[in-house]
Design brief:
mainly alpha, Arc Repressor Mutant, subunit A, 2 domains, 2 strands, globular
Amino acid sequence: MVDKDKLSRATEDYLKSIYELERENSPVSTNALALKMGFAPSSITGMLKKISTNSPTLINYEARKGVVLTNVGQKVALEIIRHHRLIELYLTKALGYSSDKVHEEADRLEHVISEEFEDKIALILGDPKIDPHGEPIPSKDDTIIDKDQ
C-alpha cells in the first residue's frame, strides 16, 4: 500500500478528481481534468506524467488517450473522498456550519486528518452513509454505494 503521508496534497486532489470524472467517462481526458481542476491542459499533462512515476503506481496515463486510476490509486482517492465527506457532515452536524460553507473547509482538512480522527468522526456520527449534499460516503473498506440506488 502507499504511504499516504508521502503524497502531496496536489497528488491527492488529482486522484480525487480523476476518480470523480472516471465515474462519468473512462479514460479521463486531460481537457476534462483541466476543466474540473481549473488548470491549463499543459499543467495537467505535466502533473499526470509526474504522478505516473510514483511507486506503487497510482495512475495509468497515456498522452492523447487519457488517464485511469490503478486499484491503489482508486483506494487512495476513496480514502480522501471519505475524509472529505465525513468532515463535511461533522462540520454541519456538530459545529453548525451551513452546507454551503463546508466544502472549502473540508478541502483543507481532508489531507491532514489521521485514521484515528476519521474513525472517531465516523463513530460520533453513527457511521453515516450520506454526506450533507446527498453524496455517498465511502466505507472504511473502500466501497461506495451507488448514489442512484
